[in-house]
Alpha/beta hydrolase
Amino acid sequence: MKLYVVSGLGADFKVLEKLKFPENMEVVFLDWLIPENHESFGHYIKKMADRIDDSEPFSLLGYSFGGVIVQEIDKIKPAEKVVILGSIKSDSEKSRFIKAGEISGIPKFLPVSFFNEKSTVAYSFLRKVIDPKNPKLMEYFTVRDPYYLKWSIEKMAGWKSQENPKVIQILADRDIVFPPKYSKPDYVIKNGTHLFPVTKAKEVSKILSEIFM
């Protein structure tokens, strides 16, 4: 069976490369697409879903914002299983920080230039939130198109969805981005930050083998 995988916001698949996926799964990574100017979330999701062959059974896995993407894809092309790493199952699980962004509308009003590589404010904040002690953090954060970053943060803040009981959620106990206290995860990775697919790859790989056995 094919397993279609979407990485985190701004991240390529290096952040997931240490994971060992079950041998019975054919892993297909879906690269991020750069959204068109003022592109709707629904239109973007359809373009992502268009790259999935649903003529045969498949499963989905998403990390962080990629977890939101795969849940939306599942609404168009239903998967056998949907697994999310470091992500949320519904808008009711948003952290106070994300809810603040939604209510205030701040992400919408930030200029695109705020997200370019010369913006020390944006990238310093990114380091502090995701994993401040990991010196290799920026090696995983490679999709740096400013409009894509602004668009994605807006869509994450404004995401609305009810929980799908099909979704299997894996969170880390020290994740600041998506704290497990706002969710009821199926699995919790101990002593893990938001970057747990890298730092706790063995634990995550073991869980994936159980899910897809």
Notes: Residues 119-123 have pLDDT under 50 and may be disordered. The two ends are 11 Å apart (CA to CA). Residues 22 and 213 are 7 Å apart (CA to CA).
